[in-house]
Design a protein that fits this description.
Length: about 475
């Protein structure tokens, strides 16, 4: 089938039977009608519909090599710099819908499964069947427009030293049995964002190292439909609300995070991408260039989010008449510089595209890794600027109901801004509250700080890439050895 519609997306999620727990209760109704998921699903329904909109279809899709039907551009394995540009232009359309607030918008995992597809042949050493499984699964996701979540991170207790001495007692997710039909998996995964609003879950934990004589039961990767028997989802509290005016961001873009519990789940053989080998796990993850391909998609989101926060900052300085204040100019200029840097890094990544040795190309790693280091510092700084300039005005903000009551005439007099009516000004400050002081904004800031790992991990990736490059060292060696000038 070609790209799906928003209605098809909603119907698939509503049809799921996976046990999903929220505030101690098992959700029994349609997911699309539950406050924790409704706003996000409505946004993503609109995003999916855009793929078939005549105004955007040519940019957002390409012809499937299987049957020529249109499939999402974020599934496209790039073979040229032009393909990278096409991917960016298509992904920008979605990023500009959610303004960068959906860290797990569908194109993120579309890109992830595409990246693993490009490295699938690395699995041939362990088993050609595993390589074929991964290629087939990528094609299935592409041609059925599968909405994917992912589970990579396990509970912290599973990493405690010594708990792996007895495999039977280990709480890290593991293979507990093998049958003719497939592997039996038990364990839990944290932070499976959008697991409750996705079709399937892609599982790829970092294997717990342990001294095994044959196969490591903690090393595996697979993908399964959400509602296989034995899978359960546990939700955190939601930050979502129904009112777009009172809660302009969380009512649209709240992504639920889930704990995913596997209780003796049978994973069919054809859905297993590898099992038993720590070495293959590491080789596929690095060899697929996941962080590079995903970094290209993420940079589209960084730019959209920076533009949105910058626009909020500019509206704030307009309504408070602060445009000529030196400290405001300096703070805003830092955001300008950050935005232009991100845009330049996106173009540099595409212009510097390099072959991966397997018939595909990679965006240049250095600009993307630089962006991964820049944005987690830029985003909290932008939020702090909003907090400082908004000051106490961010605290006392009436809700939309007051503007529909008998007190509204007074509010219309006393809450006006510079060239901004009171209701519009109030809506702006409610937006700033969600960004800078509300639960939704707090999660966003924490999410961006650790999106690709902590600052040391991200710094090490960039440092390693640059440290292997002898170009700059040689430049100075040549200068020092040239004594004739």
């Amino acid at each position: 089938m070609p790209v799906k519609s928003g209605t098809q997306y909603r119907e698939r999620i509503d049809a799921q039977s996976v046990p999903c727990w929220y505030k101690g209760n098992l959700i029994t109704g349609k997911r699309s009608e539950h406050v924790a998921f409704a706003g996000l699903m409505e946004t993503q329904m609109y995003m999916y519909d855009l793929q078939s909109d005549p105004k955007f279809a040519e940019t957002m899709t390409y012809a499937s090599p299987a049957d020529g039907k249109p499939v999402g551009i974020s599934f496209l394995p790039p073979t040229s710099a032009d393909d990278l540009r096409k991917r960016r232009e298509g992904m920008n359309i979605w990023a500009n819908v959610h303004h960068g607030f959906l860290g797990r918008s569908p194109d993120y995992m579309n890109t992830a499964i595409m990246s693993f597809y490009t490295g699938a042949d690395l699995l041939n050493e362990l088993s050609p069947q595993y390589a074929e499984n991964l290629k087939n699964y990528y094609a299935y996701c592409r041609d059925h427009d599968i909405t994917l979540s992912h589970a990579f991170i396990q509970p912290y207790a599973s990493k405690i030293s010594g708990q792996l001495d007895a495999t039977e007692d280990a709480i890290a997710a593991k293979v507990v049995d093998r049958t003719e039909e497939g592997l039996i998996i038990s364990g839990a995964f944290m932070m499976a964002t959008q697991a409750a609003t996705s079709d399937e879950i892609f599982v790829y934990p970092s294997p717990s190292p342990a001294p095994f004589d044959d196969e490591n039961p903690f090393a595996f990767s697979f993908a399964v439909p959400n509602d296989l028997p034995g899978i359960s989802l546990v939700c955190r509290d939601t930050y979502a609300a129904e009112s777009h005016t009172n809660y302009p961001l969380s009512s649209r873009y709240e992504e639920m995070d889930n704990i995913v519990i596997f209780d003796r789940v049978l994973v069919p053989h054809e859905r297993i991408f590898f099992a038993g080998s720590e070495e293959i796990s590491s080789r596929l993850f690095s060899g697929s260039n996941f962080h590079i391909h995903a970094g290209h998609q993420v940079l589209c989101r960084y730019i959209a989010k920076t533009e949105f926060v910058l626009g909020t900052l500019q509206l704030l300085t307009d309504t408070l008449d602060l445009n000529k204040e030196a400290h405001v100019i300096e703070k805003t200029a830092r955001v300008f510089a950050g935005l232009e840097s991100l845009k330049a890094l996106a173009l540099a990544a595409e212009a510097g595209a390099i072959p991966d040795g397997r018939g595909f190309v990679l965006p240049a790693p250095k600009p993307l890794m630089a962006a991964n280091l820049l944005f987690p510092k830029l985003y909290p700084e932008m939020i702090e600027i909003l907090q400082l300039l908004g000051s106490s005005g961010v605290i006392m903000i009436p809700q939309e109901e007051e503007f529909q009551s008998d007190i509204a005439p007074s509010l219309n007099i006393y809450l006006k801004g510079n060239n901004m009516a009171s209701y519009e000004r109030n809506a702006l400050f409610r937006l700033i509250w969600e960004l800078g002081a509300g639960s939704f904004g707090g999660r966003q800031t924490q999410f961006e700080r650790f999106f690709f790992g902590n600052v040391l991990t991200v710094s090490n990736r960039l440092y390693s890439v640059y440290n292997k490059d002898q170009t700059n060292r040689q430049l100075v060696r040549d200068f020092l050895s040239n004594t004739s000038k």
